[in-house]
Amino acid sequence: MFLDNLIGMFSDDMAIDLGTANTIVSIGKKGIIINEPSVVAIKEDKNGSSKILAVGKVAKDMIGKTPRDIKAIRPMRDGVIADFEMTERMIRYFIEKAHNRRSFVRPRIVICIPYGITQVERKAVYESALSAGARQVFLVEEPMVAAIGAGIPVNEPCGNMIVDIGGGTTEIGVTSLGGLVLSKSIKVAGDRFDRAIVDYVRQTTNLNIGERTAENIKFAIGSAYELDEPVKMLVKGRDGSGFLSTIELTSSDIKDALKEPLKEIATAIRNVLEDMPADLAGDIVDNGIVLTGGGALIRSIDTYLSHVIKLNVQVAEDPLLAVARGVAKVIEDENLLKLITNV
Questions:
Q1: If one looks up domain 2-38+74-144+323-341 in CATH, what number appears?
Q2: Nearest residue to 263 (alpha-carbon basis) of 333, 342, 196
């Protein structure tokens, strides 16, 4: 115990947004110090053992371009751990990087998790962080920390709705009096958008593209609603005959590609609204809905959802970092930590 306390004196508390697409690490007053893709590149030898070559952006740049003995792995899928060992190694890498590679550090860590994950999945996240070197681990639910990061007054006796569209899941939550009154998690988010674009391009143009290219298309010209002036982009890929080819896509094309996943998100929001107590429903009518997460960066997604749901919808300031900011506030505020983790 004494040794743990001594080590803890030299270990800054960490807040981790362990996302399907990106991992963001914050430390106290230093703020966000790491914002990297959740990707690990490993090299396997003939004996079946492996060593890490890269983590984060460098590893992501290797996706689809590696020789047979090198693999670029995304250990998080649909908001949960798909590869326990790689997740542990990735967290350990980020802990050491955050503490200038001092291997003896043992920080307290707060990690956000999707609302709908199972107890088994919760345990996997918890044990990954402990195995990676954490002294103490707290798990907080994503809708709540997204609301905190977006500046929503979660402690007040007033209903507020947050919709966080991440990489693997979309988290929908209604907060009041420091807790989640209603919440829903669906596995329709950024990754699903990317796959929808891949399928649309193949079906309409006979061009095969990868998910990384689809992600670039999504953020470059993606739109959820028809734009007054469509934007265009040249896209390269392999056609059905195996030849390399270039086509032009517009924001209208991507609007059509994203139609089904966006419809599923809108339906999930409606379902939460239908289950809401009448008094809270009145608050949501007054306060509207706040969007966070990388999916909120898609052009006119607020206009689309507002049109479909018939409520005011607005995108939070810097939506991609809302969850990370929320987790950072939790680790800095002991009262807030106790409130939302029940410790």
A1: 3.30.420.40
A2: 196
Token code pair at residue 93: 């890498």
* Span 168-225, pLDDT tens digits: 999 999 999 988 999 999 999 999 999 999 999 999 999 999 988 999 999 999 999 9
Confidence of residue 3 (pLDDT cuts 50, 70, 90): very low
Domains 2-38+74-144+323-341 and 152-315 share a fold: yes
Cα dihedral 91, 20, 301, 198 in deg (nearest 10): 140
Structure token pair of residue 204: 């309409």
Q: How far is 29 from 101, CA to CA, in rounded Å?
A: 19
**CB-count burial class (<10 Å; 0-12, 13-18, 19+) for 305:** buried
**Res. 9 pLDDT band, cuts 50 70 90:** very low
- Closest of 286, 263, 307 to residue 156, by C-alpha: 286
Instruction: Map out the domains of the chain as residue ranges.
Output: 2-38+74-144+323-341, 152-315
Beta carbons of 24 and 17 less than 8 angstroms apart:
yes
- Calculate ∠ Cα 253-167-230, nearest 5°: 20
Residue with tokens 């966006």: 262
Report the DSSP pairing between strands 40-44 and 70-73.
Answer: antiparallel
Give start and end residues of each alpha helix (H) in the chain. Answer: 2-9, 57-60, 84-98, 119-131, 142-149, 190-205, 211-221, 251-257, 259-274, 278-287, 301-309, 322-332, 334-341
Provide the CB-side half-sphere exposure for 317 (13 A, CA).
7
Distances (CA, A) of 8 to 81, 213, 342: 27, 43, 22
CATH class belonging to 152-315: alpha beta
Phi-psi region at 177: left, alpha or beta (left = phi > 0; alpha = psi -120 to 50): left
Q: Are 149 and 321 in contact (CB under 8 A)?
A: yes
